[in-house]
Amino acid sequence: DIQLTQSPSFLSASVGDRVTITCRASQGISSYLAWYQQKPGKAPKLLIYAASTLQSGVPSRFSGSGSGTEFTLTISSLQPEDFATYYCQHLNDYPITFGQGTRLEIK
Amino acid sequence: EVQLVESGGGLVQAGGSLRLSCAASGFTFSDHHMDWVRQAPGKGLEWVARSRNKGNSYTTEYAASVKGRFTTSRDDSKNSLYLQMNSLKPEDTAVYYCLRDNYFHAFDIWGQGTMVTVSS
User: Fold this and answer.
1) Measuring CA to CA, how many Å separate B105 from each of A3, A29, A91, B29, B79?
2) Mean pLDDT, consecutive 10-residue segments, chain B of 120 residues?
3) Which chain B residues are within 8 Å of A84, Cβ to Cβ?
4) CB contact under 8 A, B105 and A94
5) Dihedrals phi, psi of A80, to nearest 5 degrees
């Protein structure tokens, strides 16, 4: 199975900060990586797919990059509504797996 | 409006069965692969199963943790996806989400989720 490891697991930041979350795959997954945002009690929301393609309707302050085994999600200027948990996910092979999540909280 | 609505969750004893349903609307259901993902209370996301579209012969995939116990199926005429869960275990307790694959190896539409609780 392909393991996805996110770092950090917890991040404290302020409104206006630039933050980066990393997702490392245990083997190469080309660009088959997506990023999701989840708020408490809600279903996850797709932010980025194919490693760097912004989902329709998602603000441009979100961006993704990477290929192979290392990927990043960057939020260029944190807004109050961005404080949530973020997950990466691959669909290169089965089983599909998710990272363990990165909880982003207000400093 | 593009929408997925799950139903069928509830409380069941270990060893019992439940059947989840997912009703799709606002898009051509038959064109898409559809998946189930679950989330145990306070935990992360775990992929459960995939139902491929007709063009891929309706084939399925399962996570090792549910293989042989869970079966996913679909009825394109009813725009519906199903998850038959047998031999349930307490560790199957979770919110179960129905998802749409967006053709690009990601899940762009999620249902609101349905809670399954398995008592020991």
Assistant:
1) 17, 11, 5, 16, 21
2) 98 98 98 98 98 95 98 98 98 98 94 98
3) none
4) no
5) -55, -35
